[in-house]
Amino acid sequence: MPYAQLEKFIFEKISQTKLPGLSMSLFKGDEVVWSRGFGYRDAERGLPATDRTLYSVGSVTKSFTCLAIMQLAAQGKLSIDDPIEKYMPFDIRPHGETVRIKHFMSHTSGIAALAYAEQIISAGIGATDDWLPVATANDMLTFMQGAEDWTWAKPGERWFYFNEGYMLLGGIIHQVSGIPYEEYVQQHILAPLGMSRSFYAKSDVDADADVAIPYVNWAQQGRTPASYIYSGVDAAGGLISNVLDLAKYGYSYLNNGKPVADENIVAEMIQPRVKTPVTESPFGEEGYGYGWGIKSNFWGHPIINHGGSVGVATAYLAFIPDANIGAAVLTNGSGYGTGLFAMYGLSLLLGEDPEALPFVRNERRLAKLEGVYHTFKNTMRLEVRRAGDMLVVSEKDKFGTNSVTLIPSHIDGDSHYFYEFMNGYKIYTEFHVTDSETKMIRERYLLRKTGSVS
After folding, report:
1. What distance lies between CA 223 and its chain's CA centroid?
2. Could you give the CA distance from residue 149 to residue 154 in angstroms, rounded to a whole number?
3. What is the 3-state secondary structure (H, E, C) of 56-74?
4. What pTM does this model have?
5. Beta carbons within 10 angstroms of residue 379's beta carbon
6. pLDDT on residue 398
């Protein structure tokens, strides 16, 4: 079974993070070569996730918004160099300069994120009682009044992920096309691509028979059914779709944009316009185009990608043009990164060993270090647990728990070095792994791993 390794990996990670359900597809050219659902689309009713299950795609929506803008530009109805103020009363001028459509598309307006979407999502899923009544582009303009002091750079200089700008792009699409943003995308992108089960409206989603329940998912506290967000995030993250429809969308980019665009539009959208603030990446330089992120070196290939999250659902869509392949991942909760699942599957399609991916290799190494450690005759007991890419060392007694976070310095080979800061000093902790045992040297102490953490 060619994809058994991928399926085992997915099952392992959603079990560890208690994700309710996940759906994924791998595609090559214009064909889905593998697709499957895992876990539950509805845990309470015991309904399984399938490859047709609907989920929110979150910010994967942004590339649809940019494609709509590029279509309208190709028709001569606007230019991406147009000032925002040509279409609406937008008067923020970072460092005295004009914000243009292309700056919102590439998150380079120079305005730092104002966290409107975070507030909308938090309220929508019940995480806060605060209320932000942003339903339209006009509401967004009102919300942004007084945001001049939140500008940081000149337009085009620096990347600040800016959901607010995408809300305004949706308003521009409405104004220029003469129809609401959602209708434009449905008529000019979704329908031509045959994405017949991709929706913006709650009524359309409610009428579908295979929809994932969105969950607030906490590995320790359990999960709580919630709701998708159907207002206030449309052009920034409002699309509901499935991994088979997203594969059709991916096909169009692998096929020079046909039938919804041309090769010039695709080339413009996937060209990096700005570096993202990733200081050291195992995948080369990371940039952002128009609605797409670009990693320059995934097994020697540029990979075009975008993730999405609305708190109760996560998403990732990626494609590798020069290998003619792609992947789509959707989940109904938060847990293991959707992009990591996709990169594992894409590695298999490229004929590479996914277990050699840097994040997989590091996870495996850190997992081996987790456990209970003792000094001589059990005079001291420490617990070591993973916390993302770091470790947390804890010591418990009747009065409480003392914990410290260890930052990896070198974790190749059989000896691993981590550090912490204490009183201005950089203090190292060492782990040494052999086939028979794992030892930790921490300050003056030598400890041996004697068991697993519960």
Report:
1. 20
2. 13
3. ECHHHHHHHHHHHHHHHHH
4. 0.93
5. 8
6. 87
Fold of 4-356: Beta-lactamase (3.40.710)
Whether residue 422 is predicted with pLDDT greater than 90 in this model: the reply is: no
What percentage of the chain carries pLDDT values higher than 70? Answer: 98
CB atoms within 10 A of CB 108: 25
CATH number for 366-451: choose from 1.20.1250.20, 3.40.50.1580, 3.40.50.920, 2.40.128.210: 2.40.128.210
The predicted pLDDT at position 423 comes to 86
How many CB atoms neighbour CB 320 within 10 A?
Answer: 21
d(Cα 325, Cα 25) in Å, to the nearest integer?
A: 11
Judged by DSSP in three states, 103 sits in: helix
| pLDDT surpasses 70 at 70 | yes
Dihedral, 337, 339, 341, 344 alpha carbons, nearest 10? -130
